[in-house]
From TrEMBL:
Keyword tags: Membrane, Transmembrane, Transmembrane helix
GO biological process, one term: protein secretion
Signal sequence coordinates: none
Origin species: Cinara cedri
Protein name: Golgi apparatus membrane protein TVP23 homolog
Amino acid sequence: MDPHPLIDDTIPFGEEISQNPGKLPHPYVTFFHLFFRVSALVIYFFGGIFTQSFITLFVLIILLLSMDFWTVKNITGRIMVGLRWWNYVDDDGVSHWVYESRKGLVQHRVNPTESRIFWAGLWSVTAVWVLFFIICFFSINFKWLLLVSIALTLNIANLYGYIKCKGGNQNSTGISTMASSFLFQNIGKVRETMSSLNNSPTSPIMKPTGIV
């Protein structure tokens, strides 16, 4: 199924963590756990100051969101908190969602400071995208609503997956499958939107309503 083991002995979990619980054993991993997601928010909030092109901002934010989703799902969750969720398709073509967590003493080696940063990053950024979604929805700002919907889907998918991992669930199909389907639907909408924008005359960017 998955070629990469969840418990990787090459990851520097060790005695130095218990001796220095406030020190980050994986500072670069921790940095990139926050970098892409915070960068997407900053560009969404302040991008209009630097460019009036909606397409440029749209593509840049989508790239950052994609890099964030992949990094959090495949790297930072496994290293920072010993959790991982993933998907595989069996020989019958059935899709399975798997939620894993390190067990026993290995799980206790997780650095508490890194763990708090990991969960704070997941919850806080998701909450901000929820706020932006509400603003765009009630202001009927469809261009930005599409972008925020994609951001919210990706962030909720990672958050839900790791909550399932922490809760000890091994297999599930419910919300994760729904999130995946919704994501692919949004990708199709992105293509349609980009095509229509490319075929229409260039117009000034619409700044997200309610954001100063």
